[in-house]
Amino acid sequence: MSTKRKLLVIGGSYMNLQMKISPKTKTGSTTTGNEYCFHPFGDSAIVAIATAKNGGSCVFATRFGDDINGKRLYEYYKGCGISKQLMRKDKDSQTGLCLTLFSDRFEHEHFLSKGASMRFTKDEIDEALVTLPDLFLAPLEELGYEEHMIVVPAEQIPEESLDEEITQALMPELMIETSEFAVIPFEEEPTVGEFSTGYDFLEENASVAAEPTPKDETEKQEPHEAEENVLTTEGTLTSSEKTVPEEPISSSENTSPEEDSEAQDPTANAPTQEIPVRLAKEKIISSETVSSYIEKESLALYAVTKAEEKGIDMLVQYTPFTAQYPLENLEHIKFFVISDEDLYDLTGFFPDNPEKTLRALIALSDKIKAKYYIIQRGDDSVFIYDGKRYEIVFAPETIRKDTREIGFKMKPTFIGAFAAEYLETKNIVHACHMATIVSLLTRTKFGNLEKLMTREELIRYATEHGIHLFK
Fold it and tell me: Structure pTM?
């Protein structure tokens, strides 16, 4: 049994078909190309692969369909060294698939079908957290939804959501000509184991039970451990949908002869009886009405909430999706990773020098609490801050010159390489240094994950090119 500290990742698995095409070859509705390949896809999968290939221990909770793509992904993950204990086969869904089209100008577009990756359950998430990971990556994507039936009694239904048919029936009584009562218009509201014998990841046998159909009822009622501090003192801080309620059971109302005669004689001089609108509404909902609607619960949010309750240290990478978590309420964020552009959007300070970066981090730390803040500056440097001190880590000059054409943002492999190094060494500066190198060496071309170096290959590459891996 491995005694290594482990990272827990919960997320989707996708088979990615990459195809390179040339818009110049388009004839009618067909565009041709000469290259294509298959490889794993998805930020969660990339983090898990990068962690394992860099020598870290990773438990990847993911789901496949009962098909050839699921089998290939499963075998590939095992080959990388990822733990298989939480991989599941879903017989009722396909393995997620992504189609990526590249053009001659290196522009690309993704088309994603999530399949089994959107069918996690609370039991699977609970089982994953029971493994007691040393670090948990907050889910980078939605894991699915659990539906709940919400029953709403009549007194909680807004008055304006009355049934149109009943309203029309009462219209003669609602024609009120008085300044004492305002007539409120009635408007209709919208209604609201293993793949066969080839491989051995766990198989999901239970089928999802159908939700019971709700019935409306109408009844009359009476009202961690210590770590090495490795930061230098380069700088210090001074600091619902609405549903239409069921139509009440109508009961015949006796009218007096006088009322009948008044209704038949529009020229009668007798004053018109004024009925307050509130009384008309009381007549409509005088009996209790029970209504219901479906509420969807995010399982990604459920995973974060449960990890928080268990006191598990979390690694949060700030993205448009993770920004939806209640980050201000989380107390167990150990590492908060954010790009310089996102930091600028959140605080108004662009971190292009230490002073502006510290000002931005002061503003950020007032809202989101973390032990370490890691700012990814472009694609080749990192700013680390622990609340008192900061350190700036630059990628080796040799790699920076050779990889500038890759882009200006860190690759998802940064997170996996960082987790692997930190869990092994407990040295955040060294972990960021290694992660920056791995990110730059992740080439954006076909089969990039297959090209991702193992730790042994990285050490050999660094030796050949005179790169110092251990900062």
Answer: 0.71
